[in-house]
Fold:
Amino acid sequence: MKTLLHCCCAPCANMCIDTLREEGREVTGFWYNPNIHPVTEFRARRNTLEEYAKAIEMPLVIQNEYALRPFVRAVADNIAGRCVKCYEMRLYRTAQYAAENGFDSFTSSLFISPYQKHELMYQVAQRAAEEFQVEFLYRDFRPLFRAGQDRARELGMYMQKYCGCVFSEEERYIKPKKLIP
Structure:
């Protein structure tokens, strides 16, 4: 079974890759993340994934478009609800590539993060699978999140501090601080 794994970053992807390989799946990584800002962050995440894929001998497809403007245009009318657009951009492109290139299924390393909107991602992936007539391989990778982060640290991988979009970076800095009594 050939599975296309959308990879948001190497720290989130490592345990997903291991799990899918343990299931006997032939995994190819897929980098398409038009939401990531700034361009230096985009490059750092992409380069780390490229190095990791090479080290573990995993084929990797790079959709190397830094697409800040299209992403911002897509979410500008509803910044608070931007995640659905972000998931649609990434998961639809992954499903389309999987369908057009002979993959049996697709999934995403986004499903490892306890910080993502899991149900929303699931719904978007199901719609993408229906539209492109390719199986969405659902896996709840969240129980593996800490192990993946630990492995990333052990391997000296670049590890980001926010989801990726300019708005999530902003939220990282403006979250209300708890006062110490």
Remarks:
- The two ends are 56 Å apart (CA to CA).
- The first strand starts at residue 2 and ends at 6.
- The CA atoms of residues 77 and 85 lie 11 Å apart.
